[in-house]
């Protein structure tokens, strides 16, 4: 394809990204995979390079972007400088001639004209919504719209996005895809791997009436289907309340939004169509050899594939077995433990002391560190159920023994504090420390806490037991144990080994490694590098078998365990529910933005962006905010894609965030419970 200005899609494949851009190369690859793809051609990146090679256009672009990156001008100024130069430049005659010839060969009455950046749809970035797309274009308007696609590479949002992803001047170009227009009756997207829970064998398919731009814009709530890839079983489905749709007009005018008058409350596609597309999606996943995000449309009852690209936000380990998912894990608490302290917890509940106090062994423990650094503690539900049953039996049949256990716990405080105050000198061995921790924890923390849980959940009236349990739980040994024993022990070990940052050792050591003399300097140095690079810890104990991982992401595992694939109902008036676009927890002041661009808006890193759609034009705000909440949108909308790429906690499709939340309100975005909590209303507004 040596320097051709146009090329048919049928002559392209995934190796032609430099010439055809991500979208163009992928469409060619789809044709190689025998997918149903509308015919078309690509105006190659060589045409764009020919255009900007005239005069000093390229130098103007390079100089402007370098000045922008140096902070000497803002996005608006950079956009204006580049656009003012490109808008008046003539497109070379040979480029126009090649476009006209390709258009005549295509012989389509109307086409779509879509930007296809050469760094778009790569393994690391999707450029979702950053560049222009034009639908239902007549042949006489193709050249004009191609120029607009070229210029969109330098819009404010695209310049901001390009800077975020590290593209320096000259490292990116743009091609343009011209394709026969599909008059979509129904449109949608399909992920071959669920983009939020990242379950390897779970697909996500969304559907809407009209053009698919309705989904990616985030303006509507689509139907959603969760499908098991190999069995083609629909596991979950939700019918979105689509209030409006984007339709093409008969006069080749710009597509228009139209009210659906209630039609959007019905399913958009049948179960048979969901399964049909699931099979297409699975075949394409196998062809590409990696997870893909696709766009599709139905015309005259048949599927047409409009786009396929890599899913850019999956964890490196998304398809690895990191935890035992055959267990039914039950979440218990989320706490700011360091790794050493967290990995002592399993010995609280499964030790030689456990039968006497707890009445059962809890042999399964799971700890997952989230993006905030906090550990989320899970136990196997079957073991917790057995333990709660034991407490119920004590209350009903052995109440005197239960009170004896509680009173013993009160007596432990005096002797416990006295021993802890001696620090490491109070113990002869690490095993003695472990046994002491287990005895203290079971009596003063675990048992009284779960007695209170049982009393509350079963609405039992027992003032004496409740008062005793509350008195015990009004104190805690754990911070003192961390400060006086665990931390000094880790630091002492690290210093002896010559570790570069001994004060960080307690973040890097697993208790059993320390107890068994397995900690080395190399282990500490390698883990420190991983933690400083952003890796998070996963620790699991099942039947005395421990596994420990440091991984690039853990939020998707927490979302998986919570079974949060779809929207859940709100349980409190001060909460809003939404769908998880990227996992995490973030607390900050709300900044409500009702416009669809960033013009005149500023955003601070400790603020939560609350918007209607979070369109790509809000990219400068999306980059700076701490978390994202939207009224509208589904998993495939621009806001969701950008949140995943930026790794910002995001809940989308809340329906009413911009109405219930005001700028200045203190809110908490908690994706693990799929809620936005309004903690405090701003009194100044």
Automatic annotation (TrEMBL):
<keyword id="KW-0460">Magnesium</keyword>
<keyword id="KW-0418">Kinase</keyword>
<comment type="pathway">
    <text>Carbohydrate biosynthesis; gluconeogenesis.</text>
</comment>
<dbReference type="Pfam" id="PF00391">
    <property type="entry name" value="PEP-utilizers"/>
</dbReference>
<keyword id="KW-0808">Transferase</keyword>
<keyword id="KW-0670">Pyruvate</keyword>
<dbReference type="InterPro" id="IPR008279">
    <property type="entry name" value="PEP-util_enz_mobile_dom"/>
</dbReference>
<keyword id="KW-0067">ATP-binding</keyword>
<keyword id="KW-0479">Metal-binding</keyword>
<dbReference type="Pfam" id="PF01326">
    <property type="entry name" value="PPDK_N"/>
</dbReference>
<dbReference type="InterPro" id="IPR006319">
    <property type="entry name" value="PEP_synth"/>
</dbReference>
<comment type="function">
    <text>Catalyzes the phosphorylation of pyruvate to phosphoenolpyruvate.</text>
</comment>
<protein>
    <recommendedName>
        <fullName>Phosphoenolpyruvate synthase</fullName>
        <ecNumber>2.7.9.2</ecNumber>
    </recommendedName>
</protein>
<comment type="similarity">
    <text>Belongs to the PEP-utilizing enzyme family.</text>
</comment>
<dbReference type="GO" id="GO:0006094">
    <property type="term" value="P:gluconeogenesis"/>
</dbReference>
<dbReference type="GO" id="GO:0008986">
    <property type="term" value="F:pyruvate, water dikinase activity"/>
</dbReference>
<dbReference type="InterPro" id="IPR002192">
    <property type="entry name" value="PPDK_AMP/ATP-bd"/>
</dbReference>
<feature type="domain" description="Pyruvate phosphate dikinase AMP/ATP-binding">
    <location>
        <begin position="20"/>
        <end position="327"/>
    </location>
</feature>
<dbReference type="GO" id="GO:0046872">
    <property type="term" value="F:metal ion binding"/>
</dbReference>
<dbReference type="InterPro" id="IPR013815">
    <property type="entry name" value="ATP_grasp_subdomain_1"/>
</dbReference>
<feature type="domain" description="PEP-utilising enzyme mobile">
    <location>
        <begin position="604"/>
        <end position="672"/>
    </location>
</feature>
<dbReference type="InterPro" id="IPR036637">
    <property type="entry name" value="Phosphohistidine_dom_sf"/>
</dbReference>
<keyword id="KW-0547">Nucleotide-binding</keyword>
<dbReference type="GO" id="GO:0005524">
    <property type="term" value="F:ATP binding"/>
</dbReference>
